[in-house]
Design brief:
This protein is mainly alpha-helical. The chain has one domain (about 5-204). About 75% of the residues lie in helices and about 0% in strands. Helix 3 runs parallel beside helix 5 (about 110-125). The longest helix has 27 residues, at about 175-204. It is globular.
Length: about 200
């Protein structure tokens, strides 16, 4: 009984972190603030919301339909074999979103952020048939690094979320330590790096 309490608390904490900082939530917030470098912010947040609709909300809605129909195990797509088709579906939604964003004249900073997400999703889709790299870790690492680069060093404590979310995925046995570390490095270095380069090229 004495052991059950701490174990239950650890599992509940891990579950809360996993749900609160799942990729659709984290990336949506990232997209909402993506227009911050543009003149007129926060009036330009609507473009970020439109991007989030196609990048996060629509793919999640379609995923939940697949889960309800029994085509996918759960909304975290725990089965590695199911990940590539789901991620390809997400890429289709994002491609449609890019067309819409282009049509409405969305700020280039928003487009840069969406393209960085595209790069991440594409790599995860390619790797998924062979290895289950953590999408949670990639999303929170990319978002935290981008936030610090965009908002300044005062936001560096956000980086503490990276090991916290990674820990939750390991505790819940959704990923190995190596898969979490790989996801964190990929998100923080590659995805955030893509955003940084595109930001300088498109916005600058």
């Amino acid at each position: 009984m004495a052991i059950g309490g701490p174990v239950r608390t650890k599992n509940l904490t891990a579950r809360w972190l996993t749900e609160a900082f799942q990729p659709p939530v984290v990336v949506s917030i990232q997209l909402l603030i993506s227009s911050l470098p543009e003149p007129g912010f926060p009036g330009t947040v609507g473009y970020g919301a439109l991007a989030a609709l196609f990048v996060c909300v629509l793919p999640l809605f379609l995923l939940l339909i697949l889960v309800r129909r029994g085509k996918v195990t759960d909304h975290h797509v725990s089965d590695r074999k199911q990940r590539a088709p789901v991620l390809l579906m997400a890429l289709g939604c994002i491609a449609l979103g890019l067309l819409v964003l282009s049509a409405v004249g969305a700020p280039q900073s928003v487009v840069a952020m969406v393209l960085a997400v595209v790069g991440g999703v594409a790599v995860l889709a390619a790797v998924s048939p062979f290895w289950k790299m953590s999408g949670h870790a990639a999303a929170i690492s990319c978002s935290a690094v981008v936030a610090v680069l965009m908002l300044g060093a005062a936001w560096a404590p956000l980086l503490l979320l990276v090991p916290a979310v990674g820990w939750s995925r390991v505790v819940l046995r959704a990923h190995s330590v190596a898969q979490v570390v790989a996801g964190s490095l990929f998100g923080g270095l590659v995805m955030a790096g893509i955003w940084w380069l595109l930001k300088g090229w498109l916005v600058g």
